């Protein structure tokens, strides 16, 4: 029992460095940001012989500078990393490095490395327990307290080879996709000082991706000898990054910081974009709408400017006026799932004849693309309930509960749905399926029902 507890303790050391921030801050969903990151990432994944559709991209709302791979083929980027990147090449360099970890199956290997590294931690704890029993409490406590640090140091020693390998693979992926890898070198060099800071003061990225001067030097030599040794200017990539950063800063930062970076005399599109999002946060919808209209005048076919206007109008209590810009955004993106959900929400809020069916249609189209989108299921439940389709609404609520991990509610609503749906239909069988997998009699579900 003690050995198992110690392994859990040491495993938590690694998990904390990846998932803790995600759990604390939450994921950030945005159609434009996800589209930009996909445009940056997919060519890299293809060069790595990975299927882009199989690799998830997740943005975590956290100001720290971090990126990591976890949960299989899933790349996680903190908003702090996106905002602090100085060039698209730097951001792409980090993405390529994380893609290299996936392509080389480093995630599976790190579990083995952790097991090897943790042995020294177990020895330290064991010696500490012996010291306590022998009447040397100060020595015992010190040994036990140091076990976590020993495990961490040994673990990072095991992973340094993987980091160096990922550097070299990242260069290959970028060059093979027709890009320079100099951005990865610049990113590492910009934060070279991190290697002299204590673990507590380092950015999370450099605790899990330890830097070393010789590692940076080898990487620079490799890039210098590559087909693209210097930065390849791409105005589209730069513009997309500036707009993405402006949106994040306007949405996440307090107004004083927004206006420090984007003062009123700055009339560029990124500046207006940032100020519009900041104005929404302060409920200054008049100013936000003014900036949105200017943006649309400059780029009338930009779907995300139409999305911005729709969002402003909806937040200002005018869902009817928001429908048109949302519909335009959906058309321009050929049915982006997140924009379809926003469009449907406006239709459901307006609640005029035909709106519930149109909203349902849009939501079902979105759910084909994102079947696990809990918010879409929640909105669908509203549309179905307003149409008097009680069983279908209960099934949609069961789906929503299931996808957020609320097993108890999912089971309850699925059981209700089976009582109100016509037997032998697809919906009825789906309700039976959810009820079955969330059954409290199943051993794996019992912990949810004991809460």
N→C terminal distance? 24 Å
Query: Helix/strand-derived class?
Result: mainly alpha
* Oligomeric state, counting identical vs distinct chains: single chain
Helical segment count = 23
How many structural domains can be distinguished in the coordinates? 2
CATH superfamily of the largest domain: Metalloproteases ("zincins"), catalytic domain
**CATH class bucket of the largest domain:** Alpha Beta
Helical amount among residues, as a percent range? Answer: over 70%
Question: What is the annotated CATH architecture of the largest domain?
Answer: 2-Layer Sandwich
Compute the average pLDDT. 85
Gyration radius (Cα, Å) is 26 Å
Q: Give the H and E element order.
A: HHEHEEEHHHHHHHHHHHHHHHHHHHH
Written overview of the protein:
With 451 residues, the chain is mostly helical. Helix content is 71%, strand content 3%. It has 23 helices and 4 strands. A 4-stranded mixed sheet has the order 1-2-4-3, sandwiched between helices. Helix 3 crosses helix 11, helix 5 crosses helix 7 and helix 14 packs antiparallel against helix 15. It is globular and about 70 Å long. The relative contact order is 0.06. The N terminus is likely disordered.
